[in-house]
C-alpha cells in the first residue's frame, strides 16, 4: 500500500533566546537581523526572551518577556526561567511549526521539552563558547561539567547551527551524531568600509596623523582576553615600539582596563556610523579572544580595511587568512602576538596590502544569502519531521 507523500507545514518560527534586546552583543544583533529578515519575507516569528528595565537596542519583531534573574558573576545578563502559563498560552496561540533555540538555558530546555511534546522540530544555534568562560571566572573545574551539559542539550535538537567552520570542527568532536550545519554571519559593507576613515576623528581622540593605532572593539568582559591584551601592549611598550591604543566598547571591565592602559583612548559603546568611523580610523585590529564562536568585530574590522591580529582559535580561524589579511597567533603566546603587531606597526605597505585583501574577503559575507540559507535549513527540518511523522 502506497503512503501519501507528507506535506510540509507552513513555516512559523518561535525563537527562544537568553538575550534579545537588553545587551548589545553579537548574538543579539544576529538574532535581530534574522527576525527582520523573516518578517520582510512574510514568515511569522515570535520571540521569547528575558527583558530588563532598560533596553540596549530597538528590537525587531514581537518580543514576549519571560521571567528571569541576574546571572551570578555576569549580572548584566539574565537567566530565563522557562515558560510560564502566560507565556505558554501566547506560544500556543501563535501556533508555531518550528522552535529555534538560541541559548541552552532554562528557557531553552523548557522550549525543547515543549517541542517534543508537540512533535515539532527544534533547531539550535550555537552562539557562545560557554565552556571557555570558566577559565576567566576562577571556576575552571566546572568546564567539563559545562561541556557535558551543552552536549546533552544540543544532541536533542533536530539541527545545530555553528556560526563558522572552525566552530563546527570543534562541535563535531562533541556532537558526532548531530545534524550540524553552518549559519554564518554577514557584514554591512555599506556601513563598514575604509571610506569611513577620518583624520579629524583621530585628532579628536588625541592621535597624530602618523600614529599607528592598535584597536580593540567589543564588550569589555574578561572572556574577551582583555588581561592578555593589556599584557601584550605592555610588551610592545617594553620593546619601545611606537603605537597608540584605541578601545571601543563598554562593560564591567572598563575600569580595570583604564587602569592597566592609562594611555589608551576609550570611546565607550558606539553603534552605526560612529562605530564604522572608529573601526576605519584605526590601523590594526587586535583580538586575542579564544572564546569567539564567530567574531563579528573581526569581520567588521576586515570590512573597514584593517589587518587583524587574532588568536588561532574558533571564529578567527575562519575569518583571518594568516599572512594574507592579518596574522594568527597561538592563544596565550604573548611574544607571538607582540611580534605580529610589531611587524605591522613598522610596515605601512604590508598593512595596506592586508587591509585591501581583508575587504575583499569581508564582501563575501552577504547577510541576505546567509539568512536565505538558514531558512532553507528550517524547511529541511520541517520536511524531515513530516517524513518521520508519516512513517
List the topology elements:
Blueprint: E1 13-16, H1 26-40, E2 45-49, E3 62-65, E4 68-71, E5 74-80, H2 85-94, E6 98-101, H3 106-117, E7 122-125, H4 130-133, H5 143-155, E8 159-162, H6 165-174, E9 180-182, H7 199-204, E10 213-217, H8 226-239, E11 244-248, H9 254-260, E12 265-268, H10 272-280, E13 284-287, H11 296-303, E14 308-311, E15 326-329, H12 334-345, H13 348-362, H14 367-390
Helix pairs in contact: 1-14, 8-12, 11-13
Explain how this protein is built:
It is a single chain. The model has no long low-confidence stretch (mean pLDDT 93). This protein is 41% helix and 17% strand. The chain has 391 residues and is an alpha/beta fold. The chain is built from 14 helices and 15 strands. It has two domains: 13-186 and 366-390, 3-Layer(aba) Sandwich (Rossmann fold); 194-362, Rossmann fold, CATH 3.40.50.2000.
